[in-house]
Amino acid sequence: MDALLTRFFPNVYWDEIWQGSLDTLWMIAGSMPFTVLIGLPLGIVLFLTGPRQLLAQPTFYGVLSFVVNVLRSIPFVILLILMIPLTETLVGTSLGVAGAIPPLVAGAAPFFARLVETALREVERGIIEATQAMGASLSQIIFRALLPEALPGLIAAVTVTAITLVSYTAMSGLIGGGGLGDLAVRYGYQRYQPDVMFITVVLLIVLVQVLQTVGDRLVVFFSRK
Amino acid sequence: MIEFHQVHKTYNAAGREIPALKATDLSIQNGEIFGLIGHSGAGKSTLLRLINRLENPSGGRIVVDGEDVTALSSGGLRAYRRHVGMIFQHFNLLSSKTVAGNVAMPMELAGALSRTQIAARVAQLLARVGLADHAMKYPAQLSGGQKQRVGIARALATDPKILLCDEATSALDPQTTGQVLQLLAEINRELKLTIVLITHEMDVIRRVCDRVAVMDAGEIVEQGTVADVFLHPQHATTQRFVLESEHIDEASQRDDFAHVEGRILRLTFRGEATYSPLLGRVARETGIDYSILAGRIDRIKDDPYGQLTIALMGLETDVEAALAMFHAADVHVEVLR
After folding, report:
1. Where are the transmembrane segments (chain A) (predicted)?
2. What ipTM was estimated for this complex?
3. A129 closest CB neighbour out of B54, B77, B139
């Protein structure tokens, strides 16, 4: 087995691959909660203030929507570089797993917020109307009707966002972010060692497949339609 | 009592004012089933939603049991809405909750009852609507009629005084419609609940309502007891609804009658008179002859009625005598020709 590995992957240091995989997982695990923490309320606000919704506020919605679009239109590689000073103030470094988390959150939260807005729009208006007719307050409408009804859609949004984060973590390798992307850049690209590139790509594919499968299962589990 | 005083509603769409409800006065008595009938866009849905303030009026006052509900604070409005149940055409049940969870929801939101009290009330409500065995199912596992029963149980959860029905049977097949209407009539009797329902089907009005208002282009064009409005429609819109409900094509009927000799009358019998052998007696005693051109014997809510279109043939004096006999028997006579 060892002989085989050495023969086909002569340049691969397996402990580095292991460390890189862990770093990637940590970056996703570290940025996902913050993405949800920022993106979910943002998505709810976008939904509620949107056209013909409960708290329709055309001007406010227009401005917020524009800001979200701006953040989403900056390519993530550029965002990584733009964020360096802010990242250093927030976590003390722009390198490694810690340094990758602020830009990852900044890139993923607006994306997640849009997905949340879309998922909430999928909830039938009649359900909001029925809940209002029961005498529900705004927070009851949100937490007792909207979010439970949109749960499968929200889980799907988390899944898509997590997968987007996988590709973002790979990019953060470009500026010393660590993880599998970092290995692919340093060994696969700069030293031209295709075997390292191959292994990192396979691991990323496996990671994405696992995330998607788990997400799909959860969506089915929580769907009652 | 629900009173509308000069209530109107205009929507602002793309800078233009669109009137949905013109200044309307209306009063609905406690304990009655009041029907609002109209085609889509007639304003009936707006009027219904003004009652529980899902829509806010552009002007006028809505007074429910002496309380001006147009002046309520947001907290007051939420408390008021708990006394007004609502059911919907598409049921609007939460798909993420079980049947029991849906019925429990209004009580959970109100926060006045304990868990055990809510569970007991849910069981009682589900038994009342005949769904005791379905408590743990999800709405997607139910038929349309069952979903509407859940909707009714949910609407009754907070013991409302008023029940608003928004086209509650329009998505159901005829048999299920009958069952749901019967359930509504029973609830109305048992709980002395005021029911306001909107529909575009005259048949729904005929089967359960006490009084009806006919709406057209944002205003009430005719209202009264169902028997009066249904048997003697005055406004063109009402007449169309009645003809539709009896599947009569006015033009072809006129053509058919053109070939008939004699006087054409429409006789309306109500109550016991419906089953009396009046026509035969009139024919024997006056010597006129008659032929029945069209007719229907049915019930309005619980009261029987008959409406016959007949041609009378005979001497002018005999026809007059026959008319006098009809009048004496309290039969309403319209001379059509």
Report:
1. 25-48, 60-84, 90-115, 153-175, 196-215
2. 0.86
3. B54
